[in-house]
């Protein structure tokens, strides 16, 4: 009798199954026919019975599938009798499976990790942490429906999680908000602050601060003694590049834990914890340079920041910011929960704010799940003859 290995977990896909053998740490991708073959290996059929039941599906191709089955037996995906030395995955508890999923993710085995976490969630449906991790892994491997379902299940038990609520919006294909909520940003970076630098510089190859500084400095020429405002300063990775050129360096961020990290870095003359559009509207001082590195990715409508920032620039002052490049005509809330922007839209916002677009460059700003994130680096100047705009 043919039987699927008791250590194999199955997960359906759009075109078959993914099978992960917990015992052998081996992942199989099965097309629809292979998925059916595996389903029928339930311990009630021998090779003859399997051929009979599959005749209508495989027809004259049975010899090919018989060979495939022989390979599956050799690879221990399928056994000809119940093995006695293989622990059944049904005996695993959800904590054990979730821990194994974490280990797999750390090795970049995210699809296998998802399959393990999916079974853990089935075994512990009332554990919100298990549902949250399932949503995160489904999100990473691009299984949007599974991510939505897991996040929704999590939110039914933890409704105050603004970060996950925002991800649900991003995954729902509804009309996006104009910007990410303050509460979401506070929760996200309150959690992220403790390992932000290590994660961004070490794991993600974050190079946006360096590249944004380079293009902005090119527009400024040899100017020094600058008044610089760093919008969304975070831990100070961006601000530290401006210290030598700045006579006064101000940092602004919504997250108090991130501001605490920036303060410890010791490069800013002033640090404020505030929402940036409100701060810009209420400020009276002017700056020679305003920079926003990986800050406007949380705004869809860029006018919210570009116009009030322009009012805070000195004549001839420079506004420089980074974005993630988008393909739609204006902006879009991506599945990541961040906004992407089209270059033409950026140009139109800058022009409408009566700023001169000095440069708009495309470049890789970091990596995410091993893939390059293509960004936009915009440098704008307040012309000497332009009137202030509201």
**Can you write the helix and strand succession as a string?**
EEEEHHHEHHHHHHHHEEHEHEHEEEHEE
Number of distinct helices: 15
Q: And the CATH topology of the largest domain?
A: Rossmann fold
The value of Rg in angstroms is: 27 Å
Helix proportion of residues, in percent?
40-55%
Q: Roughly what fraction of the amino acids lie in strands?
A: 15-25%
Distance between the termini: 78 Å
Number of strands: 14
- Spans where pLDDT lies below 50 across 5 or more residues: none
Q: Which CATH architecture of the largest domain is right?
A: 3-Layer(aba) Sandwich
Number of domains: 2
What is the CATH superfamily label of the largest domain? Vaccinia Virus protein VP39
Largest sheet: 7 strands, mixed
Question: Can you offer a commentary on this structure?
Answer:
With 390 residues, this protein is of the alpha/beta class. The chain has two domains: 3-89, Outer Surface Protein A, domain 3 (Alpha-Beta Complex); 195-381, Vaccinia Virus protein VP39 (Rossmann fold, 3-Layer(aba) Sandwich). The chain is built from 15 helices and 14 strands. The strands form four sheets. A seven-stranded mixed β-sheet has the order 8-7-6-9-10-14-13. A three-stranded antiparallel β-sheet has the order 2-3-4, sandwiched between helices. A hairpin with a 2-residue loop joins strand 13 and strand 14 (371-381). Helix 4 runs antiparallel to helix 5 (110-123), helix 6 (128-140) runs antiparallel to helix 7 (144-155) and helix 13 (276-282) runs parallel beside helix 14 (303-311). The longest helix has 14 residues, at 110-123.
């Amino acid at each position: 009798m043919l039987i699927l290995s008791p250590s194999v977990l199955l997960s359906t896909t759009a075109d078959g199954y993914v099978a992960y053998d917990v015992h052998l740490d081996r992942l199989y991708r099965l097309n629809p026919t292979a998925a059916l073959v595996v389903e029928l290996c339930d311990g009630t059929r021998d090779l003859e019975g399997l051929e009979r039941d599959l005749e209508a599906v495989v027809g004259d191709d049975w010899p090919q599938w018989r060979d495939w089955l022989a390979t599956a037996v050799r690879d221990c995906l399928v056994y000809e009798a119940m093995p006695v030395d293989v622990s059944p995955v049904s005996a695993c508890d959800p904590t054990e499976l979730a821990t194994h999923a974490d280990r797999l993710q750390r090795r970049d085995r995210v699809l296998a990790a998802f399959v393990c976490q999916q079974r853990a969630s089935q075994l512990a449906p009332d554990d919100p942490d298990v549902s949250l991790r399932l949503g995160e892994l489904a999100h990473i491997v691009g299984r949007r429906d599974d991510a939505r379902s897991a996040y929704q299940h999590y939110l039914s038990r933890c409704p105050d999680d603004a970060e996950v609520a925002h991800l649900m919006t991003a995954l729902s294909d509804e009309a996006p908000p104009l910007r990410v909520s303050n509460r979401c940003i506070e929760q996200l970076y309150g959690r992220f602050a403790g390992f932000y630098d290590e994660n961004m510089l070490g794991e993600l190859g974050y190079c946006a601060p360096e590249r944004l500084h380079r293009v902005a400095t090119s527009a400024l020429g040899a100017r020094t003694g600058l008044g610089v405002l760093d919008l969304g300063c975070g831990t100070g990775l961006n601000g530290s590049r401006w210290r030598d050129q700045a006579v006064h360096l101000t940092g602004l961020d919504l997250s108090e834990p991130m501001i605490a990290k920036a303060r410890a870095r010791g490069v800013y003359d002033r640090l404020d914890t505030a929402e940036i559009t409100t701060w810009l509207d209420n400020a009276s001082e002017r700056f020679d340079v305003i920079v926003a590195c990986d800050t406007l990715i949380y705004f869809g409508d860029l006018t919210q920041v570009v116009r009030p920032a322009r009012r805070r620039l000195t004549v001839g002052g420079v506004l420089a910011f980074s974005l993630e490049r988008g393909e739609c005509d204006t902006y879009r809330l991506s599945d990541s929960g961040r906004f992407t922007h089209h270059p033409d839209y950026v140009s139109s916002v800058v022009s409408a704010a009566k700023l001169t677009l000095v440069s708009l460059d495309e470049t890789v700003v970091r990596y995410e799940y091993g893939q390059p994130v293509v960004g936009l680096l915009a440098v704008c100047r307040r012309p000497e003859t332009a009137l202030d705009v509201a």
